[in-house]
Amino acid sequence: MTEATANPALHALNTRRSMKFLRAPAPKPDELAQILQAAMSAPDHGALRPWRFVRIQGEAIGRFADAALDAVKRSGDPRMTPEKEKSVRAWMAEVPLFLALAAKIDHNSKVREQEQVLAAGAAVMNILNATHMLGYGAFWSTGLGTYVEEVQEILGLDPLEYRFLGYLAIGTPACAVPPANRPDFRDFLTEWTGAEAAVK
């Protein structure tokens, strides 16, 4: 038995995977509070707390689908065909909870914008892990007009202040999901010893 399977926390981290097809129930209010509180532990240069989340649930999901899809079509995105729109609407109708994700950029800070966005991304990863640890599924999507400014504005996120990062769909997995085939970390690791630099 490896350490990753012997340690429950590491096992949870190593078994998390994206789950697109979700259904009710969503996390209960106290569970969602725990999930969102986990985001507050993300690394955050300058303690700027750049992460922002907009909760969309219940009847608001249908209203948001109408507004966002109309905005995407007005943007001229050729990928939003009638068939694609039908598919997106059907998917959204099953998901019980969406969180829109954004980084609020402090343009006056000495902390670079890239680092502020990374901090928000780390907060989202904490949400994904906490959701999985509580037995729910989640899917990070940028497919619903994330790069259309009108969609961002519909959510109250001024493009001059925020970098929109997409959505988390959260709920109960609608079907069994096989374990993901993860690569070996060694394929992505090199070691720098300084020996070559010392020779020069």
UniProtKB/TrEMBL annotation:
A family per Pfam: Nitroreductase
EC number: 1.-.-.-
Amino-acid positions noted as binding FMN in the UniProt annotation, renumbered to this chain: R16, R17, S18, H45, W140, S141, T142
Cofactor(s) it depends on: FMN
Species: Bordetella pseudohinzii
Coiled-coil region list: none
Family: Belongs to the nitroreductase family.
Cofactor binding, per record: Binds 1 FMN per subunit.
Enzyme class: oxidoreductase
SUPFAM superfamilies: FMN-dependent nitroreductase-like
Boundaries of every Nitroreductase domain copy: 15-171
Molecular-function GO terms, alphabetical: oxidoreductase activity
Entries under PANTHER family matching the protein: NAD(P)H NITROREDUCTASE YDJA-RELATED (PTHR43821)
Alphabetically ordered keywords of this record: Flavoprotein, FMN, NAD, NADP, Oxidoreductase
Protein's name in the database: Putative NAD(P)H nitroreductase
Organism superkingdom: Bacteria
Source organism phylogeny: Bacteria, Pseudomonadati, Pseudomonadota, Betaproteobacteria, Burkholderiales
